[in-house]
Amino acid sequence: MHVPDGFLGPQTYLPAYGVAGVMWAAGLRRLRARLDAATLPRLAVVTAAAFVLMMITVPLPGGTTVHVAGIGMLAVLFGVWNAFLSLSLVFLLQALLFGDGGVTALPVNALAMGLVGSLAAVGAYGLLRRWSRDAALFAAGWAGTVAAALVMAGVLGLQPLLSHAPDGSPLFFPFGWKTTLPAVVLPHLAVGVADGALALLAGRFLAPRTAPAPPGRGPEAP
Amino acid sequence: MKDRALLLLYLAAIVAATFVHEPARLAAALAAVLLLSGRRAPRVLGRALRAAAPFAAAVSLGWLAAAWWEQRPAGAALLRLNLRVLLMTCLTFALAARVDLQRALGFSRTLRFALVLAVSQVLTFRRLHADFRLALRCRSPRRVSTATALRHGAATGAWFLRRAEHDAGEIAQALDARGFFLDQR
Known about the structure:
heterodimer, A: mainly alpha, Arp2/3 complex 21 kDa subunit ARPC3, 7 helices, 67% helix, B: mainly alpha, 2 domains, 8 helices
């Protein structure tokens, strides 16, 4: 789902930068308006946590591994705007410091995972919260990942239609929706389960225990 | 100023690379980037190959298989795609690695502070994550089972979340004690 540079054409990433730019400005304005002793460090540290959570791989049957994205967890615990800014910052750092992802893919990754994924997660949580909070947390994690994968599959599948050579060969990502939708979305149905479990763990176990570590001491290592 | 100019140059080069579609020109641009990298060229190329290979290889093999099945040529499209991906990734490692992001993004005080805090935490967390992975390998005489890997992943994830909450509190107190939030008002 995390697309590198070179697979999205300018017809996609330039408008995406326009939309994402407006959203980043709105998010930063909200952040500045609410800036207090907790917001900024919390955003920065949550960004770092999201970064490292993406490094934790979960084994799947068959020998493959996937990694969680933490979209649902971030959205439910910290709100849509904070999750959007935090994930955008993660993608910026991954692209520029570690060469993972890319600057042309950054706005699409940020909008798909940070915004659409977060909105889907918060929506699923809001729908199911009154029925069962645990189910709502799990659904938030699953819905955030699957919604982001759906958007990403849609954007990737659009590339051969938007940019192709005179002989019809693709200039950027070569596969259409018939390939991208199953290839991207189906594995993320399983990744969503891991993300759902993470959101459940974070919401159920961690949120009520955010303050117990005594000053100057962090939690004990696993 | 130098960092911001370098970042703008990098972004312009990246955008330009998406408007060039002839494999020969993409190859020439790649060669130019590697030449300009000087002695760092092998390292830049190696890092770019490692970073781009998984996604690019999966897409290329899939496209190759589809072209073989449908009996149509795939060479030019594949060459163009892979040269472009490699050029853009090499540009990232050759140029962006020289940019001091905190200076380049200094136009927003809030963004710069968030970036400084996030990068410092990311570097710490990456090291700790590597430590935990090595610790699991050290205390496992045999290959780690799926169940153990799952438990370790969950415990590590939970630890990082709690550590993040803890660090956020500590950093907030440190910033507050130094009058950071008074300066912002």
